[in-house]
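[step 3/7] fold_predict: job queued, chain A
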Amino acid sequence: MRLADDDIPVRADTTVRPELPDGDVWSQVAAVCGATADAVAPVVAAGRVPTVFSGDCLVAGGVVAGAQRVGVDPAIVWFDAHGDVHTLETTTSGYLGGLALRVVTGAHPDRYADGFGLRPLAPERAVLVDARDLDPAEAEYLETGRTGRIPVSDVSAGTVPPGPLVLHLDVDVIDAREVPGLRFPASQGPTTDAVLAACARLLATGRVVAVSVACPWWPARDDDERAVRARLISRLSS
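[step 4/7] structure written:
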C-alpha cells in the first residue's frame, strides 16, 4: 500500500514515483529500487550523503545499488527491531519486508537484486543493530551465519564493517511507546535519543555514503500521531 504524501512529512529534493509494471510484486519492487538507485547515484557521485525515506525496508537495496553505480562498494549497518533475514522458504507470514536484509545480502537474486542491478553484499558486510524481535528461523540464521548483530549501545566505528557504509534505519527499532502507529511494533527497545546518538557516531566517521530510512507505519490516525512523526522525521533529516 502506497502511503499518502504527508505520511512521511519531509521536504524532499526528489520524489521517486516510478510507473509500476504489470506482473508480480517482485517486478514492482525492482521498479521502485531501480528508480531509487537512479536518484541516489548522482548525489553520491557529487560527494553528498543522500537520505532516502520510504515506507518499506526493501527500498534499502536501491540505495546500495545507487552507491554501487558510481563505484562505491559499501557495507550496510541495519537498524531494525526485526531481523529481516527470512527467505521465501522460512517466512511464515509471506511479508516480503521480512526478507529485506537477506535479499540485500544475496538471497533470491533472480527475484530481487538482478531486477535493478544490485550487486548483493557478502553477509559479513552487514551488521544488524538491535533486532530484538526474531522468529526462530531468523535467530538460527544469525547464530550460525556471518551477519553480525550488536545492540544500539555498541555501535561505533570499530563494531561495523570497514570502508564505506550505507546506514539503514527502520524507525521501528525505536521502542514502540515513542513511535505510534507502527505496523510491526516492538516493545522494550532503545529510545529515540539512543538510536540517533548511535547514528551520529557512524556519521561522524565520514564513512557513511547514504542513509536509508524506512517508516513502516499505518496512516496517521490524528494530529498527535502526525506531530510525533514530524518531530522524528525532522530529527532524522537534520
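[step 5/7] annotate
The chain has a mean pLDDT of 95.
The longest helix spans residues 25-45.
exit 0
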